[in-house]
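Hey team,

Sharing the Coenzyme A biosynthesis bifunctional protein CoaBC run so nobody has to redo it. Sequence (410 residues) first:
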Amino acid sequence: MTEAVDARPRVVLGVGGGIAAYKACEVLRRLTESGHAVRVVPTEGALNFVGAATFEALSGQPVHAGVFSDVPSVQHVKLGQEADLVVVAPATANLLAKAAHGLADDLLTNTLLTARCPVLLVPAMHTEMWEHPATQANVALLRARGVVVAEPASGRLTGKDTGKGRLPDPAEIVDLARLLLERPDALPRDMEGLHVAVSAGGTREPLDPVRFLGNRSSGRQGFALARVAAQRGARVTLVAAHTADLAPPAGVEVERVGSAAELRDAMHWVAKDADVVVMAAAVADFRPVDLAEHKIKKSDRDPDPVRLTRNPDILVELVGARRAGQVVVGFAAETGDGQGDVLDYGRAKLRRKGCDWLVVNAVGDGKAFEVEDNAGWLLSATGAETALPHGSKARLASAVWDSVIRTSRG
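Structure output:
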């Protein structure tokens, strides 16, 4: 009987010897549950933090750290040759140095030398170690060779220290891994020197201290745009309205807002020195005229009608305030009807808004809102139209940035 071929994407998950090694268990769980075949290759240092039995139980694969384990199968060569992606999380300063200079004294560093697939290194270390000139030189060397070295997050480190060097959230690491499997060239360092302002999430317009008018936006697409831009080298400011408890993207400055008025003020402020402005937030078109000071009580009589007034069109305002050379990108969530399809309404909105680019998403029936994937069209003010194929929201973000960069770098 012919043995069945495992068609799942093959991922090698390297784990360095840092305290953040415990988070690799969550990365592993998310990868396996999303349909990937994962082989964990820890360093000896990593096994001081998480035992091999834990990685074996979560992956269903044997775990070795040295090159003299399972010698007949030549694992130190085979793993890298057969992998579709190698992810190292956490990547310590020591691991980055070894990878940069081709040292191979264990199974993981040998795997890095034999891999010809995309490689994603996710650093985690104290701020001083990350900022040291030796580490920065190693990172620059690796990136010049085409290795994706992710930007670390900022936050609580070991002990009482806080700063840049924290391992990004496991969900973010998996998003980046999936993006590189979908599109290996999705994260070039081509946005260095650019300041990008992105809005995300749905605004909430208060009716009383308890209730509000809102929408179904989760904020995932805006966060993906911010995340991908940061990993491509941009300085990113993310203005986040209500989101689905999303962790802040690594390397991104986040400002939280609630209502459309708050988002409007924040976007005008950050847009002043931004090279690219992206309005991905789902802004409420209307808000209640009256805000009740106390909770509106339920009674036997019918409630009073809620009077609404129109919110300002923030995208149109940003277009009107656009500086020379600044690129403005809008988003449009549309449904077709008897008068036209999604693209018809998208084209009309692009003309009405006056932005440089408009991303059009078909919504409803499990599309765009509150889901992991997305698809749509990218419309240009020049008349060009590009289909954005179905895939992760990070993949759609990378396609949008490709077009925007060609415009802004012009």
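The chain has a mean pLDDT of 90.

Ping me if you want the raw files.
A.
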